[in-house]
Write a structure and sequence with these properties.
Order of helices and strands: HHHHHHHHHHHHHHHHHH
Structural class: mainly alpha
Shape: globular
Distance between the termini: 89 Å
Strand content: under 5%
Radius of gyration: 24 Å
Number of helices: 18
Largest sheet: none
Helix content: 55-70%
Length: 486
């Protein structure tokens, strides 16, 4: 009589390591990519150095492959990202400056790719904490780089400028780390709360010592908004008390840095802003300067609405269209108007549509959290992304590829849950079956096109963007006219 043996049971432990590895590896790759884009990339003169954008493009393409956005994001999201990246390169083909602004064009593609990769990955709150902690840590690293040089200058009235070598953009970079770190400590979730307590006061001090009035104003607004949300959290469990403690700590650290033991005598944290005002860089003068630059950008766009004047040609074109007494700069001091003036409707339409979509997503996310009385890292990312987008409206932040990419990363992590594609429909209609078979191919094709566009831009933009003006005797990009309020 033959005995029938039961079939061997599959051990759950044999497949567990593979499943865990499959989930961890993409997270490690995305985390390293975000760390590179917010730290070494920012150190390269804000991403303007030669080959800096090329290296960042490689990192973004690898992150795209790891994130598999064709499986997780909607066709519309991917199509808009491709439209922005592709239009930015086409501008180089149809305007007189040609490939002079290839680095600027490539930065649109890198930012779009980073947005897609992070949005595909940061769907859960747990993953959002990882992205938020890296962004916060990048703020601490940027502050340390800046503080060493500032301290070595032995003069508290000299603004901190970081690796952007301009005070306004240094302050803009620290906005998101400061606000994200604040929510990490208020939320009090270990181990992320430690990151918050360390980074928040340092980032606030960096913004203050940058002497950027616009940056400080936006930071205060975001800080107070988080305080209001902290007072409404249910259950509160000391959220408002931690917000108050963080405010006191930030003020104390800021005051301490301008005196002993770092300096022989104490000085006001606002000594830099006071020195700039004494030299003529008052808020009124800076505001007037910006209004004229915005007016110039609108006039240039009005004369070249289709494809714009090309990257770097704003100054030389405006000189032909506006009075000789007006200020001149290749920078519109408003990144939205900059896109319209340089790229016309070709670039402006998809870019502004993308920015508007992100803005709407941020407002909806903030309203939802306020209604549910939730304060977590996603709240900080939403407020931080809003701060970056607000500052871009008063300065030339996104002409620095690293700042542009940071805005993309923070925005993507903030609204990632709303960008998920819906589950496959269960209906068995013919139309549904056709969509099931075609849409995956469309998504894969869109991601492939995006990667190709990023690669082309990386090759074309390898020279960097340390010279901004085309057809003019412009100063290097680390200097600009006007004492900005940004």
């Amino acid at each position: 009589m033959t005995a029938l043996a039961a079939p061997p049971l599959a051990s759950p432990t044999t497949s567990a390591p593979a499943a865990v590895s499959k989930g961890i590896v993409p997270g490690v790759i995305i985390g390293l990519a975000v760390a590179y884009l917010t730290m070494p990339f920012a150190q390269a003169t804000g991403g303007r150095d030669s080959w800096a954008l090329t290296k960042a493009a490689v990192v973004v393409v690898v992150a795209l492959i790891a994130a598999k956005p064709w499986q997780r994001l909607r066709v519309g999201t991917l199509a808009l990202a491709v439209a922005v990246a592709g239009a930015a390169l086409i501008v180089c083909l149809v305007t007189p400056p040609g490939w002079f602004g290839a680095t600027r064009a490539s930065s649109y593609g890198v930012a779009a790719g980073a947005f897609v990769a992070v949005a595909s990955y940061a769907r859960s709150v747990r993953r959002a904490y990882l992205i938020g902690a890296i962004v916060a840590a990048a703020g601490a690293v940027q502050f340390c780089w800046s503080f060493v040089a500032w301290w070595g200058g032995r003069d508290q009235s000299i603004p901190m400028v970081g690796t952007f070598y301009w005070h306004n953009q240094y302050a803009a970079f620290l906005l998101a780390p400061a606000l994200v770190a604040l929510t990490l400590l208020v939320n009090h979730r270990p181990p992320w709360r430690l990151v918050g307590w360390v980074v928040a006061p340092l980032a606030v001090a960096g913004v203050v010592y940058s002497s950027s009035r616009g940056g400080l104003g936006i930071l205060i607004g975001g800080w107070l908004l988080i305080g209001v949300l902290a007072s409404r959290v249910k259950p509160n469990r000391g959220a408002l008390v931690r917000w108050l403690a963080a405010s006191v700590l930030a003020a104390g650290v800021t005051l301490a840095l301008a005196g002993p033991p770092f300096f022989s005598t104490s000085a006001s944290p606002f000594a830099g802003a006071q020195a700039r005002s004494s030299a003529g860089g008052t808020a009124d003068a800076s505001s007037s300067y910006r209004l004229q630059m915005w007016h110039e950008a609108v006039i240039v766009f009005d004369h070249y609405p289709a494809v714009g004047v090309g990257y770097g040609a704003l100054e030389s074109t405006a000189a032909k269209l506006t009075p000789a007494t007006w200020p001149r700069s290749p920078l519109a001091h408003n990144d939205y108007l900059q896109a319209l003036a340089e790229g016309g409707l070709l670039l402006g339409l998809p870019f502004l549509a993308a920015c508007a979509s992100v803005g709407v997503g941020l407002l909806r996310g903030l309203r939802s959290r306020a209604r549910r009385r939730v304060l977590d890292v996603r709240t900080g990312l939403i407020v931080g992304a809003g701060a970056l987008m607000a500052h871009a409206a008063i300065d030339f932040d996104w002409t620095y590829p690293a700042l542009f990419t940071l805005a993309a990363v923070v925005s993507a992590a903030a609204i990632a849950p709303t960008l998920r594609r819906p589950d496959n429909p269960t209906s068995g209609t013919l139309r549904t079956e056709v969509e099931r078979s075609t849409r995956p191919r469309v998504r894969v094709a869109l991601v492939a096109v995006l990667a190709i566009v990023i690669g082309v831009g990386a090759i074309a933009g390898h020279r960097g963007a340390l010279q901004l003006g085309f057809g003019t005797k412009s100063a290097p990009a680390i200097a600009t006219t006007g004492a900005g309020i940004g």
